[in-house]
Amino acid sequence: MKTVKSWIGLVVVLTILSVITACNNESKENNDTEKTAWANIQETGVLKVATSGTLFPASYHDSESNELTGYDVEVAKELAKRLDLEIEFTEMAFDGMLSSINSGQVDFAINDITVTDERKEKFGFTDPYKHSVGAAIVRKSDQSGIDSLEDLKGKKAAGEATTTYMEVARTYGAEEVIYDNATNDQYLRDVSTGRTDIILNDYYTQSLAVSYYSDLDIMVHPTIRYNPSSASIILKKENKDMTEAFNEVLKEMKEDGTLTKLSKQFYNGADVSEEIKLEESK
């Protein structure tokens, strides 16, 4: 009888040990998986990045060299340089960036992407490298018949479907006119000709665009300002090691003045790396 009990006891002990070992192994595998993406990048020496290539001055092609450049692009290049990594850009629309991150086609996306609570539930974000506030481009001749955001109902708002700016337009009852990674030229000409009425987007970006396309019947609306925001690099939520590594470098770039220097280069002397208060933009 004691022998039977002893065997039963031994089986129970072994079963418990087996469960504990399995749990420990699973925990170890999960930790290894969490580090895999960043470890693989360090091993291959290449960062794969999604950006639009059509968003002046964050991500666009230089008119003379046709080289991909812009504030966001140069921030990403400097980030890779300081991490001793090569960098490969893939140009795509915003919706494609998010799916490409999830599929592993790219390691992260950088394209003036606003940090929101909804996005933070699904993706990881670095510390911000840019701060701004929302503004609106309308026709200069008649202000597109818009005095405030409340006047957007029934107006044609141009943009990409899943941006935070289109969410604002949708909230105020605008008719959405959806573009797929269109150039600034197309967006702005459509407002000027009346095909659309308004573009909601970043204040700094819009100010530069209007200045560049001075021949068009467009202007930045004088009073519409909303939603102070921050832009960050977006990546898989579980890639915490990568996020920490990026944050260390971004902190260095902020402290040594690199972000300020790049900002002033692309934003006509403005320092977008500093936080902006809503009342200061009016």
Structure in words:
It is a single chain. With 282 residues, this protein is an alpha/beta fold. The protein has two domains: 42-129 and 232-277, D-Maltodextrin-Binding Protein, domain 2; 132-228, 3-Layer(aba) Sandwich (D-Maltodextrin-Binding Protein, domain 2), CATH 3.40.190.10. It is built from nine helices and 13 strands. It has helices spanning 2-44, 71-82, 94-103, 117-122, 164-171, 184-193, 203-212, 240-255, 258-266, and strands at 46-51, 60-61, 68-69, 86-91, 108-109, 123-125, 130-138, 156-159, 175-178, 198-202, 219-220, 226-231, 234-236. The strands form three sheets. Strands 7, 8, 9, 10, 11 and 12 form a six-stranded mixed beta sheet that branches. A five-stranded mixed beta sheet has the order 4-1-5-13-6, with helices on both faces. The chain starts with a helix and ends in a 16-residue tail after the last helix. Mean pLDDT is 89; it is low at 27-34. This is Amino acid ABC transporter substrate-binding protein. It comes from Pradoshia eiseniae.
SS-derived structural category: alpha/beta
Query: Might you state the CATH topology name of the largest domain?
Result: D-Maltodextrin-Binding Protein, domain 2
Number of helices: 9
Q: Kindly state the mean pLDDT as a whole number?
A: 89
Provide the CATH architecture of the largest domain: 3-Layer(aba) Sandwich
Terminal Cα span: 88 Å
Overall tally of domains:
2
Instruction: Count the beta strands.
Output: 13
Main location: other
GO cellular component, one term: cell envelope
Subcellular location: Cell envelope
InterPro entries: SBP_3_CS (IPR018313), Solute-binding_3/MltF_N (IPR001638)
